[in-house]
Design goal:
Elements (H helix, E strand, L loop, with lengths): L3 E5 L3 H12 L4 E5 L2 H11 L3 E5 L7 H9 L9 E5 L5 H9 L3 E5 L4 H13 L5
Parallel strand pairs: 1-2, 1-3, 3-4, 4-5
Helix pairs in contact: 2-3
Length: 127
């Protein structure tokens, strides 16, 4: 069975593309449409990696990131931020200081994202 990925994005077209693309690469994928559902799904499913949109209803990706890092069982989970926001200084700071976190700007191509995701899933400290 493949690694479990949580995709958090309020854009159904984007989350569907990530779902299909990573399922085709052998991942099990769970999708959450907002920050609230992301936290519920993460605690329930215990994903191996999280793909996280930054700008969403019901809380930002930054809020989700900090809440996930506060849960002991989820602290080691790699997080890949995917943002369409031109103002992502907070994300750059997080990615620079947390070796388990990466930042991609939309539009993102699966061929660019997939190797990073696969590498993070294999890295020491990942679940």
């Amino acid at each position: 069975m493949g690694k479990l990925m949580l995709v958090v994005d309020d854009n159904p077209d984007h989350s569907s593309a990530l779902y299909k693309g990573f399922r085709a690469r052998g991942f099990e994928v769970v999708v959450a449409p907002d920050a609230v559902q992301a936290l519920v799904c993460a605690r329930r499913a215990r994903p191996d990696i999280v793909l996280l949109d930054y700008s969403m209803p019901a809380g930002s990706g930054g809020d989700v990131y900090h809440r996930l890092r506060a849960v002991p069982e989820l602290q080691g989970v790699p997080i890949v931020f995917i943002t369409g926001s031109p103002d992502h200084q907070e994300l750059e700071r997080i990615a620079e200081t947390d070796y388990r976190t990466r930042l991609f700007t939309k539009p993102v191509l699966l061929r660019d994202l997939a190797p990073v995701v696969e590498s993070l899933c294999r890295s020491p400290g990942s679940r």
